[in-house]
Write a structure and sequence with these properties.
There is one protein chain. The chain is mostly helical. The protein has one domain. Helices cover about 50% and strands about 0% of the residues. Helix 1 crosses helix 5 and helix 4 crosses helix 5. The relative contact order is 0.18.
Length: about 100
């Protein structure tokens, strides 16, 4: 079940990923969460529309329901590719969800 909380997290991820910057991969690929293709560890999925990309992001967040925010960020924005500490801090601040609080 998708909730308002899932949509809030997805919207904040869009902001962090730069989905509103016309030069970003998130914008160019209609992929506001920079989701990877299923089963791949590199590259980003391309969606037909921004709504399709947002829907996929919300579903990805919802698939992690019950996990603490910090565990989600560790998987979603791994430290070998991101500043995970900053990512978690921003996501927590933007959503009001504590790092150890379940999604």
């Amino acid at each position: 079940m998708i909730t308002t909380r899932h949509c809030l997290i997805a919207a904040c991820i869009m902001h962090i990923e730069g989905a509103f910057s016309t030069n970003s991969p998130a914008f160019k690929n209609n992929n506001p969460g920079n989701l990877r293709p299923p089963g791949e560890s590199t590259g980003f999925q391309k969606f037909d529309t921004k709504i399709d990309g947002f829907d996929a992001l919300v579903k990805d967040v919802a698939a992690n329901t019950g996990k603490p925010l910090d565990s989600f960020v560790a998987k979603y924005a791994p430290p070998n590719e991101n500043n995970s500490v900053l990512y978690l801090h921003l996501l927590s601040e933007l959503t009001g969800i504590q790092p150890n609080e379940a999604i």
